[in-house]
Amino acid sequence: MALLEIKNLHARIAEDGTEILRGVDLTVNAGEVHAIMGPNGSGKSTLSYVLAGKEDYEVTEGEVLFNGENILEMGPDERAVAGMFLAFQYPIEIPGVATMTFLKAALNAQRKARGLGELPTPDFMKLVREKANKMNITPDMLKRPLNVGFSGGEKKRSEILQMELLEPTLCVLDETDSGLDIDALKVVSDGVNRLRSPERAMVVITHYQRLLDHIVPDIVHVLSAGRIVKTGGPELALELEKNGYADYIGEAA
């Protein structure tokens, strides 16, 4: 079953009208992991921002269906409640809000929207500690304000913890390997791999093959100049690592 269907998606920067996405078509079925690769400026991050509902981008054509519903008509919070999760390249800092408080508010908001009661505090604490241990997240990190003073690796681990708690049906990871050393990359990848399931789909946006050594995709797409110009299996990522994107940049023009 198609969880995510992107049809002829065109999007531009709202402020100056620069067109970035020029007809993206993509279907992601439940249980699949898709990797989207491409050179800088190809539109990879723009695609993730449009999926998240970031206001700086304007969709001029096309549609995005998630579980058959048009998400372009939903606010970012409605998309999250529907089961979409976006892990950003640069997670934002929220001074004054403890990580634990943020996690509890996010989980309970999602439960409420789905008609479930709030999780009692002892159950919530147990759940978070269990998952945090697997992510090498210390109790001290959970007490600190969200992402404030966190290293790049700590921010990414914190995001994957959020993802594990919320159990979304669609996970979009935007260059989540950016700035990670090999140990942090392994912890983050293990967290992502624990979430792989027949009911869940993942879209992994990355510049490098090294992430795909840890999170092995089913399907790899090359995005260039705002559209997908090539689709293949995991071997396509290896080919790109070896030969670069030069072959595909011309195709998109």
Automatic annotation (TrEMBL):
Give the matching PANTHER family: ABC TRANSPORTER I FAMILY MEMBER 6, CHLOROPLASTIC
Query: What's the family?
Result: Belongs to the ABC transporter superfamily. Ycf16 family.
- One MF term in GO for this entry? ATP binding
NCBIfam families on file: sufC
**Protein name (record):** Fe-S cluster assembly ATP-binding protein
Q: Which UniProt keywords apply?
A: ATP-binding, Nucleotide-binding
Q: Which SUPFAM superfamilies match?
A: P-loop containing nucleoside triphosphate hydrolases
Query: Where do the ABC transporter domain residues begin and end?
Result: 4-250
